[in-house]
Amino acid sequence: MSLNAQFPKQVPFLPGHVFSDPYKENHHKTQQFSNINGTVQEKTNFIHEEFDPNLLDSMKMGTPPNLTYGSRQPPENDYIPRIQPPWLKYDRAVLRFYSYFQESVVENPNENYRIRQVIIYYYLSDGTIHVTEPRIQNSGIPQGLFIKRQKIPKKLGKQDFYTWEDLQLCSNINFYDRVYRICDCDTFTREFYEYMGKPLSLPEQLPRDNFQAQKETKDLKINPPDTKEYKEYFEVKLGGGHPNGGLNKYLSNDRKVLSFDIIWDDSSIEGQLNYYTLNYYLADDTCEVKEVRKQNSGKDPYPLMLRRQKIPKQPILTHYPGMTLKKEEFYSPLDLICGNQVRIYGRDCFIYNCDDFTKEYYLRVLGIQQKPATLKQERGKKFYQPVPPYNGYGYEEDSLGSVYSLQPKPPKKDVRKNFTQDQFILRFESRLISEVREENSRRFIISFYCGDDTVQVYQTSERNSGIWGGKFQERSRQKNPLTNDYYTEKDFQLGAIVQFNVYKFQLMRADEFTVNYMKQKPDVFKEADIKQIIAKLRMFADNYPNFDSFLLDLMKKLDKQLKGQIEFEELATGLQELGFNLTLQEQYYLMREFDINGEWKLNMQSFWEGIGGKRS
């Protein structure tokens, strides 16, 4: 018997009036559940269950209970209810959402807002919500439980609370005037919504604030730019090999260069079309851009627009190029196709052609056929710079040197011609051609110096003629007014008319040296070559039935009196009657060739045989 049972019943059962039994020794509790042979069993020895003796008798006799006992009333709700309440159906079922809210930061130069990540828990059993923020070590911000578990109203002062249907991904939700952005959820939450027939949308990424980016950059370990060089140095110092990753490419593509013709249309106020040559070196994938220079372009001579280097597609401009963490993409041969544009540090250049080696390389290696693009033909710019007239001082070449250059150089002389042709002087007897009748009888000696192409004129005089003889013109170079070029030795032919300043002279005769000199140079003095003269004379035979009739008619017209010899005037008159237009020099050399006795008479027999007649 316990100690409490010995107390009188009148003592109230209140704290302080009940005492523990000091004589009690067995304090164990009876175990009702046990696991026997893998089966959970319950001990019912200490459980008293009331039973109906009538029902027990009917079960023993095998009689239906509805005949002996009567019909049983259907229970309103069994031990396991047919309609489970939420606290039973969703026991320990929690929806979890990942969200964030934006918190403003003041008086901080590094950031003006901060992203704080939170987790929203929704308990399906009673519709309560609690919000917690994961703790971040050394954050300096109070974190942990943000909103205690409770039902959160949609609006303050009203009994309309949030349900699981109000929580959707990629949406904003307001808890006590603080807006949360729901980004993602766990797998159970997504399956629950799909089971309920309201699937969730795709999740979105959590944004990053400046503090997180700064922290990642601060903790990022950047190796010094020369770390690789140090490692290679120590490896070679310890006896290792020097690594060279691009050696094979260099050996296989050394001195192989792809050359492209590009054009840049400078659209600025003073811009124009600029032509360049882009060379791509296959050995190390570097490029250089050379300017195509044109004469009188007015631009400074800069040979290179871009030195040899790799050309990035989008260059990264920074004050410390060696410390940038961004990776640049450079141009490769696949980008350099005729008709495409290449951007060279802000200049859009158009590729319109390439050389033969480049076309062969693209067709053989890359399987691409380079087709040149057609450009609009530019109109050539014509610049006219008038040359000032000759001032009369020195030679004309000296004056032109001051026109063509700011620092004139003395004109170059043909020294070789001076040494080889200086001893040759061609002298001609000539007459003056003038509108005054009396002056046509004046005779002159014109000397042409082959060494320097100068001309000197002397005037001859007869006794009591009233004409002074002597030097008529100083030795100097003279220009041909018809061609505006200086006179050369081929311009001095017998019968030709030369003009020095305002005076015109007709060359009548030449001395023996001049005649022999012209005869020895048939390539220059073609009218002094007897073979060409005879061939020209025989061409007139085409107007006759045969060659013999041509010869007979020629002899009859020349030697009308059948003397066997004719004078020079008779030769000129006969050729004029026949219509054979031979020059004075050609007639002169015919006369000299067939003058046998030296009497300045043409021998008809020799002339007959010379032009192809048969000997009698």
Question: Which residue ranges are poorly predicted, with pLDDT under 50 across at least 5 consecutive positions?
Answer: none
Count of runs of 4 or more consecutive helical residues: 16
On the 0 to 100 scale, the average pLDDT is 83
Could you estimate the helical fraction of the residues in percent? 10-25%
Largest sheet: 6 strands, antiparallel
Strand content: 15-25%
**Order of strands in the sheet with the most strands?**
6-5-4-3-8-7
What's the shape? rod-shaped
For the termini, the CA-CA separation is 192 Å
The total of beta strands comes to 24
The gyration radius over C-alpha positions equals 62 Å
Helical/strand content category: alpha+beta
Quick structural overview:
The chain is α+β, with helices and mostly antiparallel strands. The chain has helices at 53-61, 65-68, 86-89, 187-195, 210-219, 227-237, 247-253, 356-366, 396-404, 415-421, 512-520, 530-538, 547-558, 568-578, 584-593, 604-610, and strands at residues 33-36, 39-42, 94-104, 113-123, 128-133, 144-150, 171-175, 178-185, 257-265, 273-281, 286-291, 304-309, 341-344, 347-354, 425-433, 443-449, 454-460, 470-476, 479-480, 485-486, 497-500, 503-510, 565-566, 602-603.
Q: SSE layout and pairings?
A:
Elements: E1 33-36, E2 39-42, H1 53-61, H2 65-68, H3 86-89, E3 94-104, E4 113-123, E5 128-133, E6 144-150, E7 171-175, E8 178-185, H4 187-195, H5 210-219, H6 227-237, H7 247-253, E9 257-265, E10 273-281, E11 286-291, E12 304-309, E13 341-344, E14 347-354, H8 356-366, H9 396-404, H10 415-421, E15 425-433, E16 443-449, E17 454-460, E18 470-476, E19 479-480, E20 485-486, E21 497-500, E22 503-510, H11 512-520, H12 530-538, H13 547-558, E23 565-566, H14 568-578, H15 584-593, E24 602-603, H16 604-610
